[in-house]
Specification:
mainly alpha; 5 helices
């Protein structure tokens, strides 16, 4: 059992993420508190700003070139292309191209 340093509730070890840097091998915040923190507006805004920065852009490009990154990106693209939103976009784009050709 371990006490979460955020909510101060004693929980089982499986309620914590593993963390090699801590002596007991688990993080100091429970999964529930971590989830709440990651869903906050402040965190979302901070991530958006980082992703728009030159360093964030460089990191994303490097990840996209990696084997794991390319697989995940391909899967996400397949999921997007199977949505109704994408098929509607393709239809409207094709119509626009036809009009411009005429």
């Amino acid at each position: 059992m371990k006490i979460c340093s955020k909510c101060n509730i004693e929980k089982a070890f499986n309620a914590f993420y593993k963390c090699r840097t801590h002596s007991d091998g688990y993080g100091s915040w429970c999964k529930e508190c971590n989830h709440k923190r990651n869903q906050s507006e402040h965190t979302k805004e901070r991530n958006r700003n980082y992703n728009r920065s030159p360093k964030g852009s460089q990191v994303r490009k490097k990840y996209a070139k990696s084997k794991k990154g390319s697989i995940i990106i391909k899967k996400a693209l397949e999921r997007y292309r199977s949505t109704e939103k994408y098929t509607e976009y393709r239809r409207s784009y094709r119509q626009l191209v036809r009009v411009k050709k005429q």
